[in-house]
Amino acid sequence: MSTQVTMPPTPNRLGASAAAAPREPRVIPSWWRDTSIVVAWGLGLFVVALWVTNGGIAGLTSTSGVLDESGRLTGLIASYLLLLQVLLMARVPFVEQAFGQDGLTRLHRWVGFSSFTLMLAHIALITLGYAADAHQSIWGQIVDFTLTYPAMLLALAGTVALCLVVMTRHVGRVIATR
Length: 178
Fold this sequence. Notes:
The protein contains six helices and no strands. By secondary structure, it is mainly alpha-helical. The radius of gyration is 25 Å and the shape is globular. The N and C termini lie far apart (about 55 Å).
């Protein structure tokens, strides 16, 4: 014969019973979604404004200048979008409730592909611009970047890691559809 002992519900730190019904999630006002979108676009425009105020447009006077400045701008926007991508999947409660997890996942995917494409454009444009400015071959410029510019080996490792993440995601999606 076994006896079962039931313990009374213990109060939580707020003094309410733990056995009480779970709280309803807080309803987020609909304007949070619109405000979040406006803030995200505003910060993106702020990044572009930083590029403009630091001589971005003034550098568009030659072919190498156009390539260099376009590369800088794509790099700045790609960096901003990568940060935004991390924030989208950080499960910030009010953002998740305003957009829904499915909506955040769709945005994360779109922002991810956009930032990855801009990062590749940044690499290509900067390399072409510096090679045109130094009057050397593209491969010579790549070697020059990798061996003489500070932190370029780290940037190369980060780029390879990000490419592996994107390829893994793509291969996983192909396998899942079969």
